[in-house]
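User: Predict the complex.
Assistant: Input components as received:
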Amino acid sequence: MENVYLPHLTRIAEVRRETVDTLTYLLRFADPGVARSFTFKPGQFVEVSVFGVGEAPIGFASGPSNGDGFEITVRAMGSVTRALQRFQPGGWVGIRGPYGNSFPLEETRGLDVLIVGGGIGLPPLRSLIEAILHEREAFGAISILYGARTPQDRVYKGELERWKNRGDLLLLETVDVGDESWTGSVGVVTTLFARMSMDPSKTVAFTCGPPIMIKFVIQDLLKLGFPEDRIVSTLERTMKCGVGKCGHCAIGSKYVCVDGPVFTYKQLKDLPEPP
Amino acid sequence: MAATAVKVIQKDALPSWVATLMTEAVVIGPRRGPYQDAQLAPVTSAQQVDLDYTHDLLPPTRYLLPPSEVLFRFQFQNGDGPTLTPEYDERRRIFFGVRSCDVKALRYQERFFQRDFPDIYVGTRVRNAAVISLACTAPPLPTCFCACCDGGPLLRPGEGCDIQLIPLEGRYLVEVDSEAGERLVAGSPELFREATGADLSKRDVAFAGMDQRFSTSAYLARGIAKVTNDAVPAALWEELAEGCIGCGGCSYLCPLCTCFTVVDRTRNGKTGERIRRWDHCLLAGFTREASGHNPRAERGVQFKRRFFHKLSYPYMQREGRPGCVGCGRCLTACMMGVDMAAVLLRFRELSRKPKWGPPWAAKPKTSP
Amino acid sequence: MQRVLTVCPYCSCGCGLYLLVDGGDVIGVMPSAGHPVSRGSLCMKGWTSFQHLRHSERLDSPWIRRNGTRTRVPWEQAIAHTVEGLESVRLRHGGGAVGFWSSARATNEEFSLLQQIAWEGFESTAVRFDPVIHTLDHVPASLLEGPRAARLDDVQGADLLVVFGQGFLDHHPQVASRILKARGQGARVVVISPYRDALAERATLHIQVPVSDDVPSAFTNGGDWLSERLRTWWGEAARPVVVYPLKSLPLQRETALLGAFESLMGESGAKVLLLFPCANSRGALHRRAGMTGPGDRALRALVVVEENPAAWDARFRDLARDLDLLVVLDLFLTETAELAHLVLPSAGFAEKGGTFTNTEGLLQALQPAVSPPGEARPAGAILAELAGRLGVRQVDSTSKPSPPPIPVAAVEGATATAELALASRAADDPPQFRHIPDRLRHMWLKDTLLRHTDDWQREHQDRWVEVHPEDANVLGLRPGWMVRIAGDGTEFQAVVRISERVGRGILVTPYDLFEGLVQVERSA
């Protein structure tokens, strides 16, 4: 029997700073056998170990077809993520996973895609975006709306430029509060809906970000006529095992680590407790 | 495996059987501790075993999922990656005298930990455990309510013991229910004889009138309905939760509670261990996230959540049975009177206007 | 998995609990079902009492601080240095300049040793054995022992309970439990406290007054009862019991109140339960002689056993500066240990034997279940060695008298309706508030062991203060706002909650021991 609590070892191959408190790490498995056989889907997560400090559940931030390891983007919040901030390339990080369900990519083939991200909600969406762009022709129109608090808080500044410069998708950005160098929109991310057109009857909407943002995004999507099972989001909960045993992430009769973290709005509505 | 092989062992032959069992494994058997505490604990001498006991306040499931255990140790050396060394508990155990409620709980936990991502720590201990259960012909404690919860007092074939002992006068019926059970009996063939018709009819007599002896007033079914339908007023949850001091006793001692937390411990950052330790949900820290956001910050919603986990139909579907076997340990553990039986009683009263209730049932209007 | 029966190291109830031992470690605890105090239950402190034992910051070797740096030294050197230092101070300043302080968690045997070292070694009366209570001299003996002194089970069997203070569910849950059970059996319960907590909510009558001020010193038959109803009920009761946590009042008022209790007892079956705060407060205070406080400038050397005055007494740091020698025995490097010249690692409650005396006077034995980590040693062993080197006659610190058996009280379930009245006496003019310290909760928040208990720390991360809605209105405060609370020499911050449980013009918090007028304003 495999020991699901025993992490695989990875080494940090690269560290990139996204914002003052957020870093992206490229991780590669130390064991080539594990590296070869490791696959995942966008929306899933791993339990990241800093030995001696603990574990934290972090979603994949890169697409599954990169082949050369995978990326996670981490904001310093608790003891594990703060400890991780001090790690340099070469540092050892434990990884367990992939866990959780994934974004309904198969069901989205042939349809248009709307992606609405807020702040630190963009990383799991980036995994989705990279998977979609890897097979661009399998999907219809792609629109990405991204809102951050300030221009400094934007993650993946480089990718945002690259996506904007592709000819085959629409990318709109906004910030809550601008600065001298910001020439883009100012306002909450829902203000971007007015600047684009979409057909809710053949679009799947994916949204991740702070809970308050998600609440308003979903409200607007419903008003625009999106069916409840075509609005897809993710839930966060504190987790200790990631495999549906410790009980910390349970909500209603679901475990966020096994039945989620990806949920449609229809499923979220039916939960007996507020997310 | 059908319990077709029914044997009989005389009461005074038990020590000899236990002595043989002790050559095979650690026998976790009944004895009295300080303050007359009933304990199911490692037996050091076969004479200690006395099946005339109630039940251990610590459920035997805690031998399979201990209060804390080391998952693995880690060690960094010379700038290489850490070596991770897991620790598995391969000790062989024969549980002797487990009550039916605890056997059902044991199998519940076995299924829970086997599902989705099998837990190798619990799985190893289950694999190395044999269970000889002891049926109850009368409730051993006034706090028992197993009959309300499909928790006992008898096990049917296939419900998870290797051998079920049924007490008769001066002897025990021995219902073997697995190959492992067969082997445990076969090791001392001279101590057992076949059960006669007279023995079997004595068993029927022993269980006649069970309805009178075993309380059916806990109304678990009504509790299940109320909780599943979210038909319990928030004010009642808040009132119950106000009496709760968050000690965790109900969860630590519940044979079906399985929640745990995982922590790392290290003195120097180079060596240390990752530990799993029992945890309970009537604490704000159980759900507080690193950001500080807490979806269940108040005890009222924590209390509601705990009973949803124990009693709701979706969980019954998920786990195969209600989350309570009526063992009554939470009634002992709770010094504030907000245990399962007390809560079920309050649910019952929701359907009717209470003439009386616990002292704080009617919350008065306060005015200066 | 083995079970070792011992006694909870936290409050003075003294629950019997088993240490669960496997592989040389205490992996958990559980209550004793038949024990007369625990009766199969424990509070959160008891249930988590094993978590600090293998905390990664446990001290495991002696330290000496020289020239600002701390170095590990062998025991021999640490003991020698301690003995030399103490004798040097005795030579230069007299034995009375050497003080001996302890928490109330030390065992009776450890107190005996400490006392002997102090008296016979130094003729010093600078001895303090409890952080909250410094003397029992003002307590009438009849309220501590004999027919007027209540046992815990007398609380449950009472037909009238007069309870002083709030927070029993936090600081003495086994007492709260018995009060509630008595209530369930039809007893009348009167709670006198400034804060209407869950216990007061379920009482028959809550007299909401700031205990420190408005409780008359003459609480006697025919005297100035707080309420006519209470006087009537007292007359009607066959088994009235008063529950009073010691040190709820300043010394003078408490002396008067205790005197009033004594005269109240009269002919009836009335009893008083005087609640001590800590696991061995009662054992400690029986051995105490003389008193000294942190303001005593005559001290030039101090031995501190498992206590942490630097964490809650602002004057301690000044005192420590003037010491030639500060020796601290403890399990962790506390704020006091940081100031020490010598730190000696001591063993935890699960790692040593000895006895505790609970609040009723019940003597109970600890049993060691595991060895202390590294070179840590039981405080008694350390003190015995010091005593030997100082030439003090030693008492056998390992004696364990067996406790007398006590019959378990039967528990009945019954009901009564709740009748609640509030008499609120507020300070005259908001926005000035009276801050009333919740001393016992404060003690637990500063407790060294609890600060190294994961689950406890995880639970007590937020600081909040409850404000009466009318006061909040006047000040324009909203729930969730951070406020600054400041008085003469005190200042702290907390998050506002609006609640009718606290009286107008009153703040009850465990965050500061300050008692007096404070201002409240929103933090920037």
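Chain B has two domains: 6-213, 220-350.
Let me know if you want any component modeled separately.
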